[in-house]
Amino acid sequence: MGVVYYLLHPNQLRSIIQWKVWHDPVHHRDPSKEDPTLKSCFEFLNKTSRSFSAVIQELNPELLVPVCLFYLVLRGLDTIEDDMTLDIKEKEPLLRQFDKYMETDGWTFTKNGPNEKDRELLVHFDDVVTELKKIKKPYYEIIKDITIKMGNGMADYALNAEHNENGVATIKEYELYCHYVAGLVGDGLTRLFVEGNMANPKLLERPALTESMGQFLQKTNIIRDVHEDYLDKRRFWPKEIWSKHVDTWDDLFKPENLPKALECSSEMVLTALKHTEECLFYMAGIKDQSVFNFVAIPQSMAIATLELVFRNPAIFNSHIKITKGDACYLMTKSTQNLQIVCEVFRDYTRRIHKKNDPRDPNYVQISVQCGKIEQFIDSLFPRQDPKQLGEAAKPKERGQPGMDAGEAFVLGGMVLLTLFFVSGLMIGTAWFFGARFDSLWKTDSIYWPSSETGTATPIEHKEL
């Protein structure tokens, strides 16, 4: 975006400047104390993730390296799964045994296609292996466990010919896919947070909260990236949803079917919105500010992205995303506290509700869900103080006596006296500045006509 854009949108520029100037990280990473292999890991973190890199590097030192390595391991796994140049016979064992490779000194992988954007990470994966062996055992075991589960899940999908050819069929399959690629990540992160004493251990007893965190992010990304995935011949929108609106997947992208496509996208947005309350509840269990920032920023970005894609025709012919100014605004808001994050969610939920179209088959359900989100936020942070409301209601409950006749007479008299005083003051002021009131009583006044009968004088027109 150029200078002209920011001149026309000064609020965007203001948000960027505010974030750059006033943002003060809770923790600062110190590269001078890092080994060369760890520096290499952070370099790959910067290369492979623009959205998570900054917030990871501001984490509490206790979790900084484990979370960084966790991300790189899963990114390596994802790079193998995404590479369509790899034969399935080679890809499957790589995915299922990736936990073994991350324990093998010096292991690297160089067979990714030349166009695979993150192939360099696997070429130098030995640096990640080296650093994994230095972290605390509990952290390592968590990373290994999630790697095993995700690797097997990815392998199952890679072998699923029906999925590869026709995409996701049912909503259940859709949510299972989101579980493998995002829900498991949330599970691993929550266990890391609790192990580091940065989150309430009760979160481990509520896996649905953790699952919703991942589902909300992944579903939002799938909705936003529908056109990009369409060009890559990938289908993640479940047939159970899109088949209600169009006959074939390709029909969804035809201009003449745009109204139906928007209705389909509305239903997809609805499936994502249903996770919102649990996401907010999850964030209430975070005890460390840097960890709160880490989980809150992506969630705020997600609700803003949902508002952007909701009933937006552009998602079917281009790749859209929130502006840099909006991103900086959201990061500023999301690095404070839960109440402010809730206000962000309330704001974007209201925008979604405002854009909702009564002609849309999902209109009622979306409106109800928006109402549920607001109601949940009000349950966390009531906009009125119940104590004050209770105190105000007590006099009414006791039945205060009404005004008696004497009080009414005195009040009426005071009103009349005030009226006479103000009127006299105004008339006196007018007289002092030269107003004439005596003309009101003259008989020839226009205000007080004479009692004498006037006679008309005929007008002569000699020229006629």
Automatic annotation (TrEMBL):
Any one Gene Ontology molecular-function term assigned to this protein's record: squalene synthase [NAD(P)H] activity
Keyword NAD: no
Listed CDD domains: Trans_IPPS_HH
Membrane found in the keyword field: yes
The organism's place on the tree of life at top rank: Eukaryota
Pathway note: Terpene metabolism; lanosterol biosynthesis; lanosterol from farnesyl diphosphate: step 1/3
Record PROSITE patterns: SQUALEN_PHYTOEN_SYN_1, SQUALEN_PHYTOEN_SYN_2
Residues annotated as transmembrane: 408-433
UniProt enzyme class: transferase
BP term (GO), one: farnesyl diphosphate metabolic process
Keyword vocabulary terms for this entry: Lipid biosynthesis, Lipid metabolism, Membrane, Steroid biosynthesis, Steroid metabolism, Sterol biosynthesis, Sterol metabolism, Transferase, Transmembrane, Transmembrane helix
Role of this protein: Catalyzes the condensation of 2 farnesyl pyrophosphate (FPP) moieties to form squalene.
Family annotation (NCBIfam families): squal_synth
UniProt name for this protein: Squalene synthase
